[in-house]
Specification:
Number of helices: 4
Largest sheet: 4 strands, antiparallel
Structural class: alpha+beta
Radius of gyration: 37 Å
Number of strands: 8
Distance between the termini: 50 Å
Helix content: 25-40%
Strand content: 15-25%
Order of helices and strands: EEHHEEEHEEEH
Length: about 190
């Protein structure tokens, strides 16, 4: 089918000539519209991430629990001192026996926080029933290894108990602890 190459026409009525047809001179043609948008629009490749990034001075809400400045060989953790307004002395004493030591407010001037009103731990950093504590990294690594060994022995005990049910007429397979994720047909 052939394209219509004629110029668009507008019917203008005047008192002398009620239905005279004229070719518009002030109407832009589609080619002219495309050309005008190409000259004013920047190509997509010229846009870079730096132009669209937020300024570094943008406001961000404060975190509930501030993070202390990292120190080599030290691990920080927030320890529960109270829950629902009641003191949790058993949890605090257990954490102290594990090796956690409360951080004094003067040791961390970067943390600006008002201490809890009825706190038992004056001079320490306590926010909302949580107290900032520190411990040596080596000690916490040993703690992690201990709890990993406990978890492994529990899994071995469950597997052994399961395998005790084994019968030679219908043998059980060894438990497979591997997780696999596949996509599509596989």
């Amino acid at each position: 089918m052939a394209e219509d190459t004629r110029t668009p026409e507008i019917i203008r009525a005047t008192p002398e000539r009620p239905q005279e047809i004229e070719a518009p001179s002030e109407i832009e043609r589609p080619q002219e519209i495309e050309a005008s948008t190409e000259t004013t629009r920047a190509p997509r490749e010229s846009e870079v991430r730096e132009q669209t990034e937020r300024p570094s001075d943008a406001w961000l809400p404060a975190s509930l629990l501030p993070e202390p400045q990292p120190q080599p060989g030290i691990v920080f953790r927030w320890i529960r001192t109270s829950m629902l307004g009641k003191g949790d002395n058993a949890n605090v004493s257990m954490k102290f026996r594990e090796g956690w030591v409360p951080c004094k407010a003067e040791e961390h001037p970067e943390i600006v926080a008002m201490s809890d009103i009825d706190s038992q731990f004056k001079g320490n950093i306590e926010i909302g029933g949580l107290m900032l504590c520190r411990a040596p990294e080596e000690l916490m690594q040993k703690r992690e290894e201990y709890y990993q060994q406990v978890a492994d022995s529990q899994m071995q005990s469950v597997d052994d108990n399961f395998m005790n049910e084994n019968d030679s007429r219908m043998p059980l397979l060894q438990p497979d602890r591997k997780t696999r994720t596949t996509f599509g047909r596989g």
